[in-house]
C-alpha cells in the first residue's frame, strides 16, 4: 500500500520504530492516552506519538519541552507560526467587531482579499471564491469545471492527495482513503504520477520520460471525450518537479480537447518554490487552488482563483460555505500575502532553497544512501535507497534517520516511507538550514557506522 500513498502512516512500522527507540515520551504519556481514548482512530491522526504545546516561527515545542525545527508543518507555516504581523491583523479584526458576515452581506476584508489575490495571481485569473478548507476548494474547482464544460469526468494522478472530502479522495485515489469505501465519484480517471527517478520504462533521460508520460496522457484523453478537468499539483507532493516542456505539452493537449487545467497550489502557493505560485515556473492553469498557509497557520481558509471567462455559473451554487466571506479569515489571509510581499519571502525561498539543495547534493556525493535530491525553493526531498542501481526504497533507514534527527531537534515527515520531506517555514534562516544539514550529516554518519 505504501508505494501508492503519499502518506506517512502513524501506525505499523513507523510508530513501532518510535516506540522501540529510546525516545522519551513519558511526560506526554497521559495526554497521548487520553487522545487515543477520546478520538475516533484513523490512519494518520489517532493514535499519535507526541503532543505539541506551542508553535512559533519555524519551530514547534513538543510535550517534553523540546524545541523542534519543523520541516513539515502540514504546509501551513509558510510565513512562520504565530507570525506577529498576522497576529496583529487577527487582533485588529477581532477588535473591530466585524468577525462574521452572514450570507447576502459582503464586507471590506473579504473584498480586499479577493482583489489582492487577483493582483498577484498569474495572468487571466481574475475570479475568486473562498471557503474554509483545501478539500472544499478542490471540490469547488471540480464543480465549476463540470458546470462550465457541461462534462462530468475528471483526470488526475493516482495516489495523490487533494483533500479528505468525497470528491477530493475520488480524485486523489490515495488508498488510505479509498480502499473499502465502495464506489467513488463516477468518472474519476487516473494516471500514474510521473517520476523521473523510478519510472516503468527505466528511463533516465528527461525528454524521453516526459514523452512517455505525455503519450499516456494523450491516450486517456483520446479515449474519453467528456473530461471536464485535469487536476494536479504543478510540483508533486514528493517534490518531483516536472519540466516546463511537460507542462506546456499537457496544457496544449488540455486546450485542444476542451479540458480545464486545475492546479492544486494548496501546498506550493505564496512563495514556497521561489515564485509566488509554482505555476509561474511553467504554465498558467485555468483554475488555481490555494489553502493551508493562506490562513497563516492560525485560521483554516482556502479558495480558488479562476479565469474571467469561467464566470458562467451565476445561476448555480458551487461553494456556498458558511464561512465563505469570513472577515476574520480574510483579514488573516490578506496579511499573509502582504507579509510574503513586504518581507521578500518569495526571493528568500528561492535563495535559501538553493543553499539547502546545494548542501543536500554535497551529502549525496558522500553518502550512497541518498539516491536522489529533488525539489525547488524550500520544497525539497531526499530519496533514500538501499542500492543506487536497483533504487529499492530504504524505508527502515529513513525511519531511523527521522528519529535520529527528531532527537536532535529537527522534525520532518517521510513520504512513501523513504523520502525525506523537507519543507520548512519560509522565515527559516541560513544558519538554521546549515544546522539541519549538519544534523542530517551526523545522521548519515551514524547510519553508515551502524551498517559497518
Ligand atoms: C496538495 C493538497 N491538496 C489539498 C489538501 C487538503 O487541504 P485541507 O486539509 O485544508 O482540506 C492538502 C492537505 O494536506 C494537500 O496537501
Describe the structure.
The structure is a single chain. With 452 residues, the protein is of the alpha/beta class. The protein has two domains: 2-81 and 345-451, Aspartate Aminotransferase, domain 1, CATH 3.90.1150; 84-342, Aspartate Aminotransferase, domain 2 (3-Layer(aba) Sandwich). Helix content is 39%, strand content 16%. The protein has 13 helices and 15 strands. The chain has helices at 12-20, 29-38, 84-96, 108-120, 134-149, 166-172, 175-178, 206-223, 244-256, 327-342, 345-366, 395-407, 430-451; strands spanning 52-56, 59-62, 67-70, 125-131, 153-157, 188-191, 227-232, 260-264, 287-290, 302-307, 370-376, 379-384, 410-411, 413-415, 419-422. The strands form three sheets. The protein has a seven-stranded mixed sheet, with helices on both faces. It has a four-stranded mixed sheet with strand order 1-2-3-13. β7 (227-232), α9 and β8 (260-264) form a beta-alpha-beta unit. α11 (345-366) packs parallel to α13. The protein is globular, with a radius of gyration of 22 Å. It starts with 11 loop residues before the first helix and ends with a helix.
Quick synopsis:
This protein has helices at residues 12-20, 29-38, 84-96, 108-120, 134-149, 166-172, 175-178, 206-223, 244-256, 327-342, 345-366, 395-407, 430-451, and strands at 52-56, 59-62, 67-70, 125-131, 153-157, 188-191, 227-232, 260-264, 287-290, 302-307, 370-376, 379-384, 410-411, 413-415, 419-422. Helix content is 39%, strand content 16%. Bound molecules: pyridoxal-5'-phosphate (PLP).
Amino acid at each position: 500500500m505504501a508505494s501508492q500513498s503519499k502518506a506517512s502512516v502513524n501506525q505499523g512500522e513507523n510508530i513501532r520504530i518510535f516506540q522501540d527507540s529510546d525516545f522519551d515520551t513519558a511526560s506526554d504519556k497521559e495526554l497521548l492516552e487520553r487522545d487515543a481514548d477520546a478520538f475516533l482512530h484513523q490512519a494518520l491522526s489517532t493514535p499519535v506519538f507526541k503532543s505539541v504545546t506551542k508553535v512559533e516561527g519555524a519551530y514547534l515545542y513538543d510535550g517534553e519541552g523540546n524545541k523542534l525545527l519543523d520541516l513539515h508543518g502540514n504546509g501551513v507555516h509558510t510565513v512562520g507560526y504565530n507570525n506577529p504581523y498576522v497576529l496583529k491583523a487577527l487582533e485588529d479584526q477581532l477588535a473591530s467587531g466585524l468577525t462574521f458576515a452572514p450570507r447576502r452581506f459582503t464586507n471590506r476584508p473579504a473584498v480586499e482579499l479577493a482583489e489582492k489575490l487577483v493582483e498577484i495571481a498569474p495572468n487571466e485569473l481574475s475570479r475568486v471564491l473562498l471557503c474554509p478548507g483545501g478539500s472544499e476548494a478542490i471540490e469547488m474547482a471540480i464543480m465549476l469545471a463540470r458546470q462550465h464544460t457541461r462534462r462530468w469526468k475528471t483526470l488526475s494522478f493516482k495516489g495523490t492527495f487533494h483533500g479528505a472530502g468525497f470528491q477530493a479522495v475520488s480524485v486523489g485515489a490515495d488508498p488510505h482513503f479509498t480502499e473499502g469505501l465502495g464506489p467513488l465519484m463516477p468518472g474519476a480517471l487516473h494516471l500514474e504520477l510521473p517520476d523521473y527517478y523510478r519510472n516503468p520504462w527505466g528511463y533516465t533521460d528527461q525528454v524521453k520520460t516526459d514523452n512517455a508520460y505525455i503519450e499516456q496522457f494523450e491516450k486517456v484523453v483520446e479515449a474519453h471525450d467528456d473530461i471536464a478537468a485535469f487536476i494536479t499539483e504543478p510540483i508533486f507532493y514528493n517534490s518531483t518537479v516536472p519540466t516546463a516542456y511537460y507542462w506546456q505539452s499537457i496544457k496544449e493537449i488540455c486546450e485542444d480537447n476542451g479540458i480545464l487545467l486545475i492546479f492544486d497550489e494548496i501546498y506550493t502557493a505564496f512563495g514556497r518554490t521561489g515564485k509566488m505560485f509554482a505555476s509561474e515556473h511553467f504554465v498558467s492553469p485555468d483554475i488555481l487552488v490555494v489553502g493551508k498557509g493562506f490562513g497563516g497557520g492560525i485560521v483554516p481558509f482556502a479558495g480558488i482563483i479562476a479565469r474571467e471567462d469561467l464566470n458562467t455559473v451565476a445561476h448555480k451554487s458551487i461553494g456556498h460555505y458558511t464561512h465563505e466571506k469570513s472577515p476574520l479569515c480574510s483579514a488573516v489571509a490578506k496579511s499573509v500575502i502582504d507579509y510574503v510581499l513586504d518581507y521578500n519571502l518569495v526571493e528568500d525561498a528561492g535563495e535559501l532553497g538553493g543553499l539547502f539543495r546545494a548542501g543536500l547534493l554535497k551529502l549525496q556525493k558522500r553518502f550512497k544512501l541518498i539516491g536522489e535530491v529533488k525539489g525547488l525553493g524550500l520544497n525539497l526531498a531526499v530519496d533514500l535507497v538501499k542500492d543506487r542501481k536497483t533504487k529499492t526504497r530504504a524505508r527502515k533507514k529513513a525511519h531511523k534517520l527521522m528519529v535520529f534527527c527528531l532527537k536532535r531537534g529537527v522534525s520532518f515527515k517521510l513520504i512513501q516511507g523513504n523520502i525525506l520531506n523537507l519543507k520548512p517555514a519560509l522565515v527559516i534562516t541560513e544558519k538554521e538550514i546549515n544546522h539541519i544539514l549538519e544534523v542530517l550529516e551526523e545522521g548519515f554518519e551514524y547510519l553508515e557506522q551502524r551498517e559497518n
